Amino acid sequence: MAPVRVRFSPAPTGELHVGGARTALCNLLFARGHGAGSDGATFLLRIEDTDRARVREEWVDGIQDTLHWLSIGWDGQPIRQSEHVDRYVAVAEQFLADGLAYECFCTEDDVKERNATARAAGRPPGYDGHCRDLTTAERDERRAEGRASVLRFRTPDTGVSTFRDLIRGDVTVEWANIPDFVILRSDRSPIFFLANAVDDLDEGITHVIRGEDLIDTTHRVLVLRRAMGAAEQPIYAHLPLILAADRSKLSKRHGSVAVEEFRSRGILPEALLNYLALLGWSPDEAIGEILSLAELIEHFDLEHVTHASAVFDEKKLEWINGEWMRRLDTAELAARVEPEVRERFGAAFDPDVFAHAVAIGQERSSTLVQLVDQMACLFVADDDLVIEPEAWARLEAVERADDVLDAVIAHVEACEWTVDGINLVEVIKQLGLKPGKVMAAVYVAIEGRAQGLPVFDAIWLIGQEHALNRLRAARDRLG
RNA sequence: GCCCCCAUCGUCUAGUGGCCCAGGACGCCGCCCUUUCAAGGCGGUAACGGGGAUUCGAACUCCCCUGGGGGCACCA
Q1: Mean local confidence (pLDDT), A206-220
Q2: Nucleotides of B under 7 A from a protein CB
């Protein structure tokens, strides 16, 4: 059997979407699961940039950067469809010469308008074959009028189209339901179906793994391949779609969809990949759900992918992310956030304090953003510590907050300067109060909020002078 | 409207005729731990959309209904 050749083919009309990332991942897993080296599988990246109106060069780069971030690596140089336009046009013209395609003079508006009438009359929309059987004379007449034309591919009138899908089995549609479709726009630029069919054939793609939203287009691509004389058809696998929480299509209205958004929200690439793989697929219970890319490659199996679309669950993503944060080596985790922390806190950044804070925060946060936010109080000047109104209210609500702060100040002035020496539990108990009930006041005074790093560590990390400044400031404000 | 795909806990899923009065994970709830909050540990709640058919037996097979998603562009 010939080596497996797959491709991920995004259209650079926006940032990489989680759906696209999942498609790319499944292609990668499939390829890497089918041998390595010279006789192993090949995974290509193909940029489908034939729509000149919507493509932007920044997205071409952006998508590749995002794939790199996810450690989804492809083989060789990315392929640009825009560089193969001549080839697509030549194929289209051959179709015209062979009578498989025809010139169509209907404008986009004509087609839209007739579609609307068809719908209103209860007839199916889609091209109605208006220019299908124009005579040579009629065509000449229209050209003489200066009317632009597109090239339309003539689909069979009868029979069915069937292809085999690795996930769904045989998928069959009657040709009568597939109208003639455009392959060359009026500006002679090729359309998706054509470019896709030509490239898959030219590149010897053996398996096409993509989203289910493309399932209906498969028949059109296949008929073009046959028209080109392709002896074999690739095997398809249509992945179930990812849905928003309300089961509608995942879109910006429902929160994050771009991979970069998850990145900026402090999600690790390992976690996103892991979560995406779990959408529609699940490993043996004995293995557990937290899997590295290498483990996914080992276990993932396209034939066990579910058929139904899946709702994207950000809670579970965050849980997986927390698991990954704890699995990462502390130094590695620190390295991932250090540039950001340095930039955010400038001169106040202290490498030793930072290292300690990461070690503590690693065990208690679910995202990188949480991790960094927790340590923010360590790198701000005492006067710049922001205490939100709710946090201050929390402090004020603490029983005998004034006594608590006085006792804490006295202790911090005199105690041995170690985390154990700072321990305030006995101090609070001596006041006849429960540490668990009143400690929040100390958190607010030191960290500016009622949640964050364990406060004895925080006090130790900012140092005696700063700790006292903050405690006294809070005490003064309390009056 | 027409075509295609699909249907197990709130969510992701296991389950391929008896092992299932349905297992796991996230969430949620409770308890424990505890320097607030988290994190962690333990426990609990919760599902086979409906109706027929086949069978000794159906979550698993078939049909219908209902429901959901996708497609029907000179986007991909």
Answers
A1: 95
A2: 1-8, 10-15, 23-28, 34-40, 68-76
Q: Are strands A169-174 and A42-47 parallel, antiparallel or unpaired?
A: unpaired
From the CA of A138, how many Å to the C1' of B50? 57
Q: What is the pLDDT of residue A26?
A: 97
Tell me the whole-structure pTM to 2 decimals: 0.94
Span CA (A182) to C1' (B73), Å: 9
Q: Is the CB of A330 under 7 A from strand B?
A: no
A88 touches strand B (CB under 7 A): no
Sign of CA dihedral A26, A27, A29, A33: positive
Answer for A229: CB within 7 Å of strand B. no
Instruction: Verify if strand B has an atom below 7 Å from the CB of A146.
Output: no
Answer for the pair A45, A78: CB distance below 8 angstroms, yes or no: yes
Distance between CA A34 and CA A111 in Å, rounded? 45
Q: Which nucleotide is nearest to A212 (CA to C1')?
A: B70
The 10 Å Cβ neighbour count of residue A282 is 14
**Signed CA dihedral, A151, A157, A163, A169: sign only:** positive
The residue type at A45: L
Residue type, A410: A
Q: How confident is the model at residue A377 (pLDDT cuts 50, 70, 90)?
A: very high
Cβ-based burial of A273 (10 A; exposed 0-12, middle 13-18, buried ≥19): buried
A44-70 burial, b at 16+ Cβ within 10 Å, e below that, comes to bbbbbbbbeeebeeebbebbbebbeeb
Predicted pLDDT at A1: 65
Classify burial at A357, counting beta carbons within 10 Å of its beta carbon; exposed 0-12, middle 13-18, buried 19 or more. Answer: buried
The span from the CA of A80 to the CA of A48, in Å, is 7
Average pLDDT over residues A278-304: 94
Could you tell me where the beta strands, DSSP code E, fall in A154-309?
160-165, 169-174, 181-184, 207-211, 235-239, 242-243
**Of the candidates A311, A313, A328, the residue with the CA atom closest to the CA atom of residue A268:** A328
What secondary structure does DSSP assign to A402-449, as a single string?
HHHHHHHHHHHHHS-SSHHHH--HHHHHHTT--HHHHHHHHHHHHHSS
